[in-house]
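Q: Predict the assembly, please.
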Amino acid sequence: MPRGIRVYGKKRGNRRTGSRAIGSAGEALFFAVFLLLGCVGLAVILVTLVLPEWRANHEFVRHTCTVLDRRVAKDTDGEGASLYRPEIQIEYEIGGQTYRIWTYDISKAYSSGRSGKQAIVNRFEVGREYACWYDPADPNTAVLVRGYTWWVWLLLIVPISFVLIGGGGCIHAALHWGKSAERSAAITRRASQLDLFDRDGRNRDEYPNIPAATDMTNSPGTTLAFRLPIGTSPAWALFAVLIACLFWNGIVSVFVVIAVNSHLEGDPEWFLTIFIIPFVLVGIGLIVYFIRQLLVTTGIGPTLLEISDHPLHPDEEYELFVSQSGRLTINSLEVLLMCREKASYRQGTDTRTETRDVYRQQVFLREGFEVYRGMPFEVQCDVGVPAEAMHSFKSDHNEINWKLVVKGDVQGWPDYERSFPVIVYPKAEG
Amino acid sequence: MNAPRVIIRLDDDDRVYQPGDTLSGEYVLESIPPERVKAVEVSSLWCTEGKGDEDLAVHDFRRSAAENGDWFSHNRPQRFNSTLPNSPLSYDGLIVKVRWCVRVRVFLGRGKELLGEMPFRLGSVPAASQSPLPLGEGDGEGKSEQTA
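A: Predicted assembly structure:
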């Protein structure tokens, strides 16, 4: 059935898709406003600040003037705070005509802090002659100092950012305006093939939407071909937990102090006291979790995984070398091969991510053994990807990730888990 | 008069292909006055379904437009063919699904469009839910997290 432009899109599964035409118009309008604001801001800054400063430095003519008076001029900003600028009254003669003006620099900008301006003013003595520069196009304009002010150039970042974001968005909207989803996708694909800095271009062309294994094969192993990089460094994970812990407890502690003081002063804030209890409990939980992670990271030595080949292919066997350092009594050490689906979706202003394990196979298990300092536990085993397995996959909102997971149950220590991503390619034909 | 529609036929009735195979077939515009057709786009593409937002990528894209002088024959089927890529393979996961199809989009002017789709499978990866692949305790175990 023929379809026209709809204001509302169709309902798809449990989501409602918006109208493409309205969406494109909204996107174009949004970026056009950005671009307009950027252009206006850029023009204002160029005309009022940059251009006059450039002209003062390049076109103004050097001359001599006499200082007649001096002062610190005062103004107030929108919130009533005082702002100041130095002003010197000078007199100079050009072409037989005498000019008398209040001036200092070309920007004529006010700023906070009177003492700095007073010090500038004090440098000029009334009655003495000083060098000045006047505008040949308007001799009534002259300055006592030249040069460039840093904040003017810093200020340019704001409108230039607006112009770049707005311009880029407008170009994107124009390229996709009135085009079907397939045509837009084809344009995007061609554009991605022009990426000059794309290290994974060849892999992407040969195996589209399979992540490149470059980062997993650039570290040679000592026993097998490749040492696999760990998914998330334990140190970084610990740092992230520490930041979360400090942030949460830092805010909560302010309210705890207020509540405790109210009790000490005999005027207890019962509502605040009861209200902050759950927040304090979460804070304690974060501290416990941080200590647990700290123990795992510092107490349990590094876990190394090496593999005989990479990327992996279904229906093929690979040798795996596992090394666990530390001084540990291990109840169980397990290595798993896992496949996890990951989907992200927008819900209102949130981005939600959901994961689901679709494959889990035990590759190795050893129970009840000791690891001594300087003598890491080392073992070699085989790992195989099933013949009918789905390959690794990555698109903007959907992923299929394969990984080797080392799980440890150590006596006297919290359990730990370390992941090592691997890439699985489609089954080789023939 | 029948409702206007796009009929797509693939040469392989099974509609199951392997990477490197040639996908070929034809489409016919039925009950559409020739003068109404402004452009036709034929794509072989994959898109995702499931929990996540939809991703779509075009493997092969051909556009014929009247404004470019392309000639549309409505009385006989139009052929198309394309060599299929190594990936991504069709997949029926628990929350991620990859679907391949041939899509013919006909632009009829005044913003009206007509769409025809013919799904096919690339590869023979079994559905995750029916997979013989082992899943230990906590089948389909998952979690969700939220970011602002």
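The helical segments of chain A are 20-58, 114-122, 150-155, 157-176, 181-193, 201-206, 234-264, 270-299. The longest helix of chain A spans residues 20-58.
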